[in-house]
Each structure stands twice: as structure tokens, then as C-alpha cells.
Design goal:
The structure holds 2 protein chains of 2 kinds. Chain A is of the alpha/beta class. Chain A has a single domain, classed as Peroxisomal Thiolase, Chain A, domain 1, CATH 3.40.47.10. Chain A has 8 helices and 15 strands. Chain A has a 6-stranded mixed β-sheet, sandwiched between helices. In chain A, strands 1-9-14-13-12 form a 5-stranded mixed β-sheet. Chain A has a two-stranded antiparallel ribbon with strand order 3-4. By secondary structure, chain B is mainly alpha-helical. Chain B has a single domain, classed as ACP-like (Non-ribosomal Peptide Synthetase Peptidyl Carrier Protein, Chain A), CATH 1.10.1200. The N and C termini of chain B lie close together (about 10 Å). The chains are: A alpha/beta, B mainly alpha. The interface between A and B is medium-sized, with 16 and 16 residues.
């Protein structure tokens, strides 16, 4: 397991943006019936999702979040931009390069993309904090988000009711007085086929049918039982190992913010690990599972008021597509946290 | 846990009437057995028996009795 204890880096700001377009339980009832729609909403805990219009990309949501953040907490410069997403504008060039230009950042800014989802925010923080701590940058901007609804098969009852779109922006800056950040990161590619978009890239070509023949080529295929079993096996030890490396007791974090997979999984994890409900963030009721945006989006919507005014010890845990999982123990706040932004069509 | 107790747990997962399952039922014909119920079954076995069911083994199950067999000697007749 890769792990790191990084000193001299502080989180200074956090922002999130979602599409203004809302899909609710009543939209599901239109094609799966009221009873099934209500049952699915109860099980997943998702009552509303934000869905990006067809021309709105993840980069547009992240750009809006970044603009709000940079306006509210303008750094002298941004030295590195990390774009974490599975839904780029293009195969090439890297979306991060386009965002460097669209955000008006200096040409001296390093920029690159990271293709990760549910664990992506933790990885993004780890990468950015490592670069800052190594002296490669004073200020890092992590843009983490996805428009996963664009990958969904409109008739797939296991994914459509669950996923939503969002983009986020997080600023990290060099600060010798900052408390250490701790990271634990792991991967098991043997499970890569359990959460996959099989078509649309180079393994199966463009427009080729998926192996199971039942899915349209470029839609998300999720094996729910496999992902759940993986979560049960890996997340409790991940949380324990991250707490141990941070030197924190189980009661020490002010809030646990896990990837907002669905309410059933989150509640099961909470009870299995033994975390009090008032310290365990569940923020997916109005936004769904937003993949790489879910942790920072929940931090904005559920912890924003507290993070603006005080320092919180946070235990973050991302897990899913890859399979990939990562935990972080960070002290954050007071932070600049602009209000959640709602974006119309780009 | 006894087999009968385990069947009652499965009834809760699939929202079947208490006492209605015998083990012979086909999962394909069992109302309430879907992907979410499969996740609920994995959760039930984890919390009640302390083991994580292999989802590939679960996917191969055809009957309720196959589900019981997954629990191995943790469920007694």
C-alpha cells in the first residue's frame, strides 16, 4: 500500500458547481413506475440528481467552481493544475491544458489530467500536496469532477437513478505551519471490469459492441454486488490504516467524508466501522453519486459552514472504479468556501 | 445460525412473507430478487455471519438453497 505523510501544505479553499438541471424521483417514475422509483430512491438515498446538458462538460463545471474560488481567495499564482476526471473534453489534448487557458492562468503553470473516479479526489490531493511539499509549486489547484450521466444507458435501473454530475475546485498552498496530511492509496486492477465503460476507446475500438452484448458500446456497466463486496473488504481497513498513520484515534476526526456511493452502502460502512452518525457525512440526497466530485461536493454542501469558520479534522475515503481506493487524514479550515454554484448550459 | 433462521433473513432481504421460503424456490422466479437484493444478501451475510460472500459465487446461485449453501457450515440444519 502506498502511503505518505506530507508536511508544509495547507488546504486554503474549496468550491463546487453543479448543473442547474434537476432530475427527481418523479422522472424515474415515468419509466419504471412510482412504486419502483420510490423503492430505488429509498435504497439509494438519492432523491434528486443534477444532470449536465449535452454540451456542458466536466471542465465547464470545474471552471465555474475554480473561477469562484480564485475570485474569493486569489493566490499570487497557480503553479500546478491537476484535473481529475473520467469525462474529459477530448481524448487529446489534456483538459487541464484547456483549463489553464480558460482560467487565465500563467503559462508557467504545469497542468495534467488524472483518469480516476471515486478515489480520484484523494489521489488528486495526494499528487498536489506531494508536488507542493517537494518544492515544485507554491500553489496547486485540484479540479475534480465528472459528468458521468453522459455515460449512462437511459434504461439502466442500476445506474440512472444513482449518478449525478458535478465539478469542484480545491486550492492547496505551501505553509510551513500546516498540520501534516496523511494518505493511504491502493489499487486492484483485477476488478477493473466491475465498473467500466467497455466501448468508445482503443481496446474495443469505436462503436464495437461490449463483450456482454447487452449494453450499448459506450455506456457505464456496473456490477453492483462486486463493487459492494470490494467496499466491504477494503474500506474498513482503509479507514483504520489511515487513522493509524495519522496517529488519530477513532473518535478524533470531526467528520468522516466517504465517496458518496449510495446511502445503503454508506450506512452499512458506518455501522461496520463504528462511526457515530453525527460525524459521518451523507450528502447525496440532492446530488446523487457524483464520482470524483462526491467527496469535495459533500464537503461544500454538508460541511461548508463549519469549514468557513473553524478547523476540522477530516477523514476522507474514496473507493471504486479501477478498482482504486485511497484514504486521507487532513486538517482543514478556516477555508474559503464560496456557495455552491448552479450552472446553466455552457 | 440455523437454516430456518437464515431463510427468515433471506425473506427480509427480498421482502417475502415470513415463513414463505423453503429453499426450493428459483431465484429467477422469486419476486424481489434483483441486483439490490443481491447487495442486501451480501450485507446480511457480512453482518450476521462475518464473511463477505464472493459475488461470482452468488451470481452462480439458481435457488434459495444455493444461497444457503454459500454460507457453508456457518448455517446448520
Amino acid at each position: 500500500m502506498a502511503s505518505a505523510r506530507i508536511s508544509g501544505v495547507r488546504l486554503t479553499g474549496l468550491a463546487a458547481a453543479v448543473p442547474s438541471s434537476v432530475r427527481g424521483v418523479e422522472d424515474l417514475a415515468g419509466w419504471m413506475g412510482e412504486a419502483d422509483a420510490a423503492k430505488v430512491a429509498k435504497e439509494t438515498g438519492v432523491r434528486e440528481r443534477r444532470v449536465a446538458p449535452s454540451r456542458t462538460c466536466t471542465s465547464d463545471l470545474c471552471q465555474a467552481a475554480a473561477r469562484a474560488l480564485l475570485a474569493a481567495a486569489p493566490p499570487k499564482t497557480v503553479d500546478v493544475l491537476v484535473f481529475v476526471s473520467q469525462t474529459p473534453d477530448y481524448f487529446l489534448p489534456a483538459t487541464s491544458a484547456l483549463l489553464q487557458h480558460r482560467l487565465g492562468l500563467a503559462r508557467g503553470c504545469a497542468a495534467f489530467d488524472v483518469n480516476l473516479g471515486c478515489s480520484g479526489y484523494v489521489y488528486g490531493l495526494w499528487i498536489a500536496a506531494s508536488i507542493v511539499a517537494a518544492g515544485g509549486a507554491r500553489v496547486a489547484l485540484v479540479l475534480s469532477g465528472d459528468t458521468i450521466t453522459r455515460f449512462l444507458d437511459a434504461g439502466d435501473r442500476s445506474t440512472v437513478p444513482l449518478f449525478g454530475d458535478a465539478g469542484t475546485a480545491t486550492l492547496l498552498e505551501a505553509d510551513a505551519t500546516a498540520a501534516p496530511m496523511v494518505f493511504h492509496l491502493s489499487t486492484d486492477g483485477a476488478g477493473g471490469n466491475h465498473l467500466v465503460v467497455p466501448g468508445g476507446a482503443f481496446r474495443h475500438g469505436f462503436g464495437a459492441p461490449a463483450d456482454d452484448g447487452a449494453k450499448t458500446p459506450s455506456t457505464l456497466h456496473m456490477n453492483g454486488p462486486e463493487i459492494f463486496a470490494f467496499t466491504l473488504r477494503e474500506v474498513p481497513p482503509l479507514v483504520g490504516d489511515t487513522l493509524d498513520l495519522a496517529g488519530w484515534g477513532a473518535e478524533e476526526p470531526d467528520a468522516f467524508v466517504c465517496h458518496q456511493a449510495n446511502r445503503f452502502i454508506l450506512e452499512f460502512l458506518r455501522r461496520k466501522i463504528g462511526i457515530a452518525a453525527d460525524r459521518f457525512v451523507i450528502g447525496l440526497e440532492r446530488y446523487g453519486n457524483t464520482s470524483s466530485a462526491s467527496i469535495p461536493l459533500a464537503m461544500v454542501t454538508e460541511l461548508g459552514d463549519r469549514l468557513r469558520g473553524q478547523r476540522l479534522k477530516l477523514l476522507l475515503a474514496g473507493f471504486g472504479v479501477g478498482l482504486s481506493w485511497g484514504g486521507a487524514a487532513v486538517e482543514a479550515g478556516p477555508l474559503v468556501v464560496p456557495p455552491l454554484m448552479e450552472i446553466d448550459a455552457a | 445460525m440455523t437454516k430456518n433462521e437464515f431463510l427468515r433473513e433471506i425473506e427480509t432481504v427480498v421482502e417475502a412473507a415470513p415463513g414463505s421460503l423453503t429453499g426450493e424456490e428459483s431465484l429467477a422466479k422469486l419476486p424481489g430478487w434483483d441486483s439490490m437484493a443481491a447487495i442486501g444478501f451480501i450485507a446480511m451475510v457480512d453482518s450476521r455471519l462475518g464473511v463477505v460472500v464472493n459475488p461470482a459465487d452468488l451470481a452462480a446461485c439458481k435457488t434459495v438453497a444455493d444461497l444457503v449453501a454459500l454460507a457453508g457450515d456457518r448455517v446448520q440444519d
